[in-house]
Each structure stands twice: as structure tokens, then as C-alpha cells.
Amino acid sequence: MFKLFFKNFKEKVALSNDEKTAIGENLKSKEIKKGQFLLGADEICNHIVFIEKGVLRTYLKDESGFEHVIFFGLEGWTAGDLNSFMKQQPARFYIDALEDCELTMISKTAHDQLIETIPAFESYMRILMTNAYMASLSRTSDLISLSLEERYKNFNTSYPSIIQRVPQYMIASHLGVSPETLSRLRAKIVD
Amino acid sequence: MFKLFFKNFKEKVALSNDEKTAIGENLKSKEIKKGQFLLGADEICNHIVFIEKGVLRTYLKDESGFEHVIFFGLEGWTAGDLNSFMKQQPARFYIDALEDCELTMISKTAHDQLIETIPAFESYMRILMTNAYMASLSRTSDLISLSLEERYKNFNTSYPSIIQRVPQYMIASHLGVSPETLSRLRAKIVD
DNA sequence: TTGACTTCTTGACAAATGTCAATGAAACAA
DNA sequence: TTGTTTCATTGACATTTGTCAAGAAGTCAA
């Protein structure tokens, strides 16, 4: 139970058995099947989830109804609409499962309580947020400064397993282009 | 000294006088003139800075030498190449002053020590990172899902003061387009 | 003031990407 | 198996954006 979660935790912050027990009591497990939703836009995001197994997709819809993939989550990653979670406001994102998933969930109540009572948990969240911010910044930099071809090659080398597990049109969406454009790029690269 | 820094701090986390003193001993002030650099790419980012006064620009250069603005920092904002700071690796970003600046600086050594010894400081950093991540995510969402016109209008309403204080071609760069394209968009909007 | 420099605008054209439509392959369920 | 659905590819064309070049307006310093 929560196996990968605690493995990941201990790689970032030291954790006594008492602390581990206290945190464990505030976690819940959940399984969702491929195609099911974890969160819909306009709902309040009441949990952040840690992915023990499976693939999640976080995306938003623009006014035309077009879906834009914000990110993919694999084993060991965290997902959730953080803005909605922190401020308890309606979510901007949808989250659904691209494969059957096993998740470790932390509710807002549990999160707030753990932050107050377990310093190691606050340390873990600080490190998680710092890493997430750095990754997001790196993606923004790539979006602004790199060509589509460079972005695609970067994505391929950085996340080869995502390519294997996710349809190509979703990769295109994550890169910010249409499926046709990515398809043509791939045809060009082969030459 | 550090006036705006502590004002901002106390809006996020409660702070005793003893803690304030301990933190203050780990801060430094610095002034830089318009045009001067706070950080050059390939240097190690040894400080994160809090902007008491002035405007900073964070940008990177692509292989063609083109500059791409990552963000602007105004009074009350934080700047620095976080990835370089945290991992003590060469920076990817340049940071320079668009106006004369007064800065509050935290060195890596001071940061690490304060994280260890002052829980309120770790709370502050956690909240800072969380907010920075949410803002970065929001920007990524906008870049992927909105048209240039929508992004420009959003920027205008979200950061009207930046428009007043920063050359238009840098705004264009922040939006991810050429100066000519932004100029033409503005001409179109007037109609 | 004059001259140098920076910034913004505009035109003409090129390159990148989007849109729409058709096709075929692969995956999946009945 | 058969039929249905999803996905990837390709062509034709439209739209957006970039590039290069020129010029106008403003700023700043000697």
C-alpha cells in the first residue's frame, strides 16, 4: 500500500516510522479504469494523486471545445489541478486515465493537517513544488525558444516511455500543434 | 531594509521577531543599475533575489543568439535561475535590470541554513514555489490553448504595469512572437 | 542643436502551421 | 469472422507568423 509513494518520499526527505504511520493514515488508495475521469473542469479538485501504476492525462478545453494536453503522468508522478486544490476553486483541467491506474490520494483536509503537524511532509511538498516549478519553467522555455522539431526530439529523448503508451495525437497536443503537423514532421525526420 | 520582503513574507506565513531577526541576518541588499546583469548564462546562480524596487528581465538565448524573455519581475516578485540555484549547475538564463533595482538577496548557503533551522522559512518557500508553479502552469496553458490576440489581451489585463515599463519587443518575446507580429496585432486591435 | 541609437511600424514575400477531406491501417467488440 | 471505431497519414489550400528591409519617431548624450 502506497509503496511507490513512500519510496519516492524517502528519496527526497528522511522519514521516521512514526511519521510514516501518521502520513499513511491520511492517504487513500483508488483504482480507476482506462477512460474514466479523475477530475472534470468546474469541479473542485479535492485530492492530489500520486500515480502508483498507469497513465493519467491532464488537459483543458478551449472555447471551441478543442482539447489541449497539459501533461501526462506516469508511475511516480503527481497529478491534480493544483490551483483548484489549493484555493478550492473550480478546476480548469480535466484528468482522465489513459490506462488502468492505481493511485495514492491525499485530500485537501489531509494535506492541510499534515502540513501543520509533520515537518517532513512540508519539506516533501516544498521539494515537490520546487521540482514541478523547475520542470514547468523548462517546458515554457522550450515552447518559446525551440522549433517544433527540437521540441519533439527533446520529448522523445526525455520521455521515451510516454511515446510508447500514448496516442500520437495527444503528443501533438502536448507539443502545441495539430496531429497532422506532427505526422508530417515525423515523415520528414525519417528521410 | 528588506521592507517589502518581510511584508510579503508575513502575508504568507506568521513570523516572530526572533525568526525575523534570524532571517534578516541571512539576507543581503544589492543595487544594480539599468542595463546591468544580475546573472549570465553558464554562471552558477548563487542567489535568489526579491525585488524591492525596479524591473528585472529573465531571458535565454537560442542557438541563433535570439533572446527569449522568460519573465519580468516587478516589485514584490522573486527572480533567479532556480534550477541553477538548487542544483548549483550552470544557469540557462540571463537576468538583467530594465530599471535601476533594489534587491534583497538570499545566498544558497543562507537558503539551505534557513530551511534547516527556521520552519517558517520553509513554509514561506513552499508557498512561494507552489504559487510560482501555479503561475507557470497557467502560462503554459495559455501558450498552448490561446491565440496570440487572447494571450496579449490577458497579459494586458493581468500586468498593465509591465506594459508601461517594458519595451514592446520584449513583450512580444514574452508572448513568443516576433516584434513585427505584435505590432501588427496591435494595429488590428485598434480598428 | 546635432548625430547616434533604440524602438516601433509597415510592406513584400517566404515559411510554418492549421483546416478540411479522404483513405487506409490497426484495434476492438459483437 | 465481421463490422465499428480509433488513429495516423496525405493532399490541397488557407491562415498565421516569420524574415528582411526601409523608414519614421523618440531618446539621449555630446
UniProtKB/TrEMBL annotation, chains A, B:
Keywords: Kinase, Transferase. Residues 15-115 form the Cyclic nucleotide-binding domain. One of its GO terms (molecular function) is kinase activity. Transmembrane segments: none annotated. It holds the Pfam family cNMP_binding. It comes from the Bacteria. This is cAMP-binding domain of CRP or a regulatory subunit of cAMP-dependent protein kinases. It comes from Maribacter arcticus.
